[in-house]
Structure formats: structure tokens, C-alpha cells
Amino acid sequence: MDLDLTEVEAVCKDLYVRALKLLPPDIKAGFTDLAREETSATGRAILGTMVENIAVAERTKNILCQDTGIPIYNVVIGRDVRFEGADLKAAIRRGCERATTEHSLRSSVVHPITRVNEQTSCGIRVPIIHVDFDDRPETVSVEMIPKGSGSENGSFLQMLLPSDGINAVKRFVIDRVIELGGRVCPPTIVGVGIGGTSDLCMHLAKVAATRKLRTPCTDPEGARIEAELSRAVNELGIGPQGLGGRSTSFAVHVEVAATHITQNPVAVNIQCHSARRAKATFTPGGIAFD
């Protein structure tokens, strides 16, 4: 399959707008689950306001949150797909720019030193583009995630020692959730990376935070820990927007990687209640939006 980069550009533009305006079905279902279990009247009221905000955004075709985030594109390429890599990245960037300028989106991206904003949601090494490969024949998937600053500021890394044990990993996660309180717009998805190197561990935490809600970790030990932590964080009493209740988090998600014998990194990356993402898949039969 020859990948049409003109189509890629158009899809990447549309995905940015879709992600900002349409909350994924699994997150909507997550609100229903939290509301059913919430015992605090204040918590139930805040959850209801959040659900209404989602409905209003869809009715008015408006964005869910003023923060258009740092744009992230995750690309997975299957077998027998032909394209030029540099041209693919350029097409994704053009799509990101067009979404911002053609839809009058607020650009939240600035130079880290001068703070100059190009007003395109792009800059040095932004949009962030991750490319991976799988064995699906003639298939390319593109996922767009606008990662908001409020939740992204809830990011932490600790290089633990193996002798600290798994309880130190759990304690680190719980302590960070307590430290953040309502600053990350709960209910959240708490992404946890365990293992790898410092940079891989942080990346895994973000993969976990932006994973489809309550899809289990593929590693059995990781799945066990995320189930324990999911229960634990909702016993903290932080609640929606930090105002009390059981609905602190939709779930804790964990991703793991092998690591060195003398280290055990753990990272936390938070996704807020407006857990936005959009996905499209290219095949010879056309383009499908998920």
C-alpha cells in the first residue's frame, strides 16, 4: 500500500479537532461508573457538571477544554506500507498547523527560553511524533493526543533501588496522587511506568495514562499492581476537582519494561478527566475514524 501523505495531512488536522471536541466513549462510560459509586453529594454534583460540560461541547461543537495541549501523534505502521519517513513527519506537522490556524484554536506551544508562540501549536520537536511498527498487513494507524498542561505538570520520576521493593513503587504513586490533590483536574487516569531507563520509564507512564480506560496491562504483575492502586487511590478522599469524594481516579494504568539489575525506576504521568484522544486507521479500503 502506498500511503497518501496528502490524506495523512488532512487526517492529522481532523484528528486534532476531533480530539479536542469529542470525548472517547470509554471515558464517558467511566463517568457513569464513578457516579454510581460516589458517596459524596458534592462529588456527585461535580461529576454531573463535568458530564454536562461534555454534552454542551458536543451540542455546540465546541472544545472540551480551553487547553489545546501539547500535540502528540502516535503512528503504528504495518507490513507492506510504502512512504518516505521525512515526508510523513512533515505531513503530520502540516496537519497540526492547519488544525490550529483553520479552526482558530489557541496555540499553547512556545519556545522554552524565549516563550515565543508561533501560533501553530508547533515548535522545536513539536508536534511530538512516535512511530512504531506491527505485523498488520497494509495498515497504518494514527492516534492524536492533545496533552494538557494541568495534567502534564503532574509528572514525576524516581530512580528507586531494587532493595526498595515493590512497596516503594506503590508508595511513590500514592504519595504523588496525594501531593497533586485537585491540581490535575480529577477524576484522572494515573499512568505509571515501571522499569526501563529514566526516559523510557517516563514514556511508559504517558503511554499508560493515555491508554484506553481500564484496558489491563499486558504483563500479569503490572496488571495486579494497577488493580491494587486503582482501589487505593479512590480511598484517599480527594474526589472530583479535589473537593472530596471517592472519584479521585477513573483508574491507575501501569506499563512495564525490563530494567537494569541495579535500578528500578518508577514514573507517574497524569491524564485529567478530559482524557482526549482520537484515532484513524488507513487501509487499502479507505480511512476509518475510531
Automatic annotation (TrEMBL):
Q: Which InterPro entries match?
A: Class-I_Fumarase/Tartrate_DH, Fe-S_hydro-lyase_TtdA-typ_cat
- List the molecular function annotations (GO) for this entry: fumarate hydratase activity; L(+)-tartrate dehydratase activity
**Enzyme Commission number(s) of this protein:** 4.2.1.2, 4.2.1.32
The kind of enzyme this is, by top-level EC class, is: lyase
Where in this chain does the record put each Fe-S hydro-lyase tartrate dehydratase alpha-type catalytic domain? 12-280
A Pfam family assignment: Fumerase
Keywords recorded for this protein, A-Z: 4Fe-4S, Iron, Iron-sulfur, Lyase, Metal-binding
TM regions (residue ranges): none
Q: Which PANTHER family match?
A: FUMARATE HYDRATASE-RELATED, L(+)-TARTRATE DEHYDRATASE SUBUNIT ALPHA-RELATED
The family assignment reads:
Belongs to the class-I fumarase family.
- This protein's name: Fumarate hydratase subunit alpha/L(+)-tartrate dehydratase alpha subunit
The species this protein belongs to is Methylobacterium goesingense
Q: State the organism's lineage.
A: Bacteria, Pseudomonadati, Pseudomonadota, Alphaproteobacteria, Hyphomicrobiales
